[in-house]
Amino acid sequence: MALKSYEMFYRHDWLHPSIYGGVWPHSPLWHWPVILLCEAIGWQHVDIAIRLVSVVSTWCGACVAGWGAAWLYGERHPNAGWLGALVYLTTGEVAFWYGWLGYVDAMFGMFIFAAIVLLWHAMQQEHPGWFLLSVLCVSLAFMTKNITAYYFWGVAGLVLMWRLRRWSLLWRWWFVMGGLAALSAPALWQWWVVPAGENTAITTLADAWRNFAGFSLWDYLKHWTTFPFIFVFRALPISLFVAWLWLRGKERFRLNGPVMALALMVLGGFLPIWLSAGGSPRYLVPLYGPVSLLLTGLVLQLGADRLRQAVRLMALVVALKVPYSLAALPWLKDWRPHHDVRQVAHEIMATVGDEPLMTENDVATGLAIAAYIDVWRRDKPPIYWNRRGQRGFVLAEAETPALGKLVRTWVVRGSHVYLYYQPGEARQ
Questions:
Q1: Which is deepest, 22, 117, 311, 319, by most CB within 10 Å?
Q2: How far, rounded to the nearest angstrom, does the alpha carbon of residue 140 sit from its chain's CA centroid?
Q3: Are 241 and 309 in contact (CB under 8 A)?
Q4: In terms of domains, do 255 and 385 share one?
């Protein structure tokens, strides 16, 4: 993500992200605030900038959760909004994984969550203004990542139309026109922006198909068995608290009204990822907004003592979050021996000097090294994919004697990094 942001900035091309000089048909919205932040605090702090964008997205998601909980449950529970925001912020996925790491998922999930809550408001009140805001948010979600935003939004729409008995909206001109406008955004983007020969929809469908193809029956059985537990685990602590109360027979929760609608939305979004053998927990990030509202509705059914226990659990998560983020995770990722990517990047720069530097390393470690080198030596072009026959240094992820002389090797974060010197013609 840092590489794509820097290369967009370097090329002054704000619509086409690229990696190692190759344009990717991916949406660019997430990179814009990263670029603005890096211009403000310096590109040498790009790792901070990409996390800040995720953190701000998460706080915006908490505002959506608070507003949604206050609207859905506030009539009977005056503090429902604050509880909903707290449940969202302390959800394990949000607090410890993709809610603050430097990926697009926090922003992607936030826009989808906002689109669903606004859609609910629009259908409940049959109000075109709220619906247009929902259309805007789902379009921004597409601009952040890909067209799967429309799947989560569409599932929510079908559930709400059924639960609220709003089938008559299908004949309202503003609903039909707004829906067509939402669905036209990917087509217009494909037509006007995506480079010739590329296709955002086909790329997304190909990525999805890879989660189904090439797996054994054992892979499918293992995924089907374990994935629901991973989903519930990443919604801790409230998901486990509610499950414990229910399994021990201490509470009987009512699945009615908004709680049932939310449960059906979550199930509809979860099923295709569960049915695949290669679905990643990362794909579930857009569901944790509705999950937080679902858990809020269940917690509000508890008595005062149980409710205080739930709040204490969330306070414990907050207490663990700060040392985890400031000490534990940096130690796991960077401070342990053979995990310091920055040190390897410095050593590569010292070895290469003013010679050209290319790469054939596109795994996570290689991408991180390249990103640091790019933003530290802004007087030189970004690292680009190796052109065989061109003279210069080449980073590789595997032993590749054909590249030329092996200069040095590293083992960092469990991956090998090889630096070769490739003889050949100087770049014109």
A1: 117
A2: 14
A3: yes
A4: no
